[in-house]
């Protein structure tokens, strides 16, 4: 009986054990799932905490910057408020001094008639500018500046002092540039481009408009309200004209520079135009004055973004200049940027050098690009006194090597172009025989002479057989191939084509000389990249050159 009961209870006990183990497995899976979920939640909340902490640190840093900037501006406002009386007294004293200075002579002492024209400007730049400013002759002033454009350094040095002799420097400067800015109103536009003169005058008038208080200076330009309103109107007219022509990005660099300098000089920057100013600064960032103008126009909060965009566009040298002007060298170290610029430039001109062109200009262009990049880096390092961190010995040595290679190529080209018999064309009569020296130059496609000749002709033929062919055939109607023709001087001995130009096989003809007409081989001239007459190219094979005042 007991054995039978045990046998009946045994299957039930096994099921209970299996159920227990299954429950344990479920509990284990649940525990593992909970553990994974806990880990995921921990990582998620940890990421949130790190993000919140990073944002908090950034906000605190920005708050400190804003508080510091606000404190500085409040201090400047307090100083300006306290200096108003002193500035007015200084301005009045300067006006009295100008009033007591000798005035230009008039035709009539009673003043009824028109004033006599001012005396012709002196040959001396300083005297000529001072006389025109004292006489308040803006048209003659602009003409004098344009006439002395070759003496731009002297003009830049003497203009500020001369403009301070004006009774109303703001009106005088606007009158002087109004003929060509914001739009060119001249009936005869000769010279065609005078934007450089506008920039020169607008830069030079800043000291004349500065507050007499030396502690404030140009931070508070003394521009009358009427002059300020006129300046705003001129800026609005320039913007409208630029938009009609396709946008500010398509404007000429000197014109865009003159616009920004006009806005900065007369302190007529508008908050709603900040994005416009930023676009112009980015489009013409390579100009020397752009970093300073960006800060003057109120783009100090956007300088980091501007520098990052310049780096993205591969304009590391411009980024270095902006970082120095904005005081952001800790975030944008100049040495890595310069090294990055050299690496990118090397990749660019190496790529262009590897691409073979039918014109044979790839090596020359790569040499020029590398020299330009090296000179730009050397100038940037010297301007910012970075020789200790960025030695220039290797760059200067490489630049000398490139210049020597360029000189050797020129010598080789000149020696090839001055060659003797190779530069002569073959001429023949209608039925006469050719001279031995000329007949020796003719060979069929196999390189053998076309007819027996004397020793002189054999030696001449030997000199031409196997010589590298020029880049194009200067055919005269002959079916014969020339192993060495008088090609362009640039390709003499340096042509990438090492095999003679392949003409169709010569057809045997009666010995009638060269007078018999033959079909000339086709002549195709390669298209020089960037110098054809297409859009954006230069028909005269020269890039546009602006006045040297643009690049200062």
UniProtKB/TrEMBL annotation:
It comes from the Eukaryota. Residues 99-126, 407-461 are annotated as: Disordered. InterPro entries: Frigida. One of its GO terms (biological process) is flower development. Keywords: Developmental protein, Differentiation, Flowering. Residues 413-423, 448-461 have a biased composition (Low complexity). Residues 436-447 have a biased composition (Polar residues). Belongs to the Frigida family. This is FRIGIDA-like protein. It comes from Triticum aestivum. The lineage of its organism: Eukaryota, Viridiplantae, Streptophyta, Embryophyta, Tracheophyta.
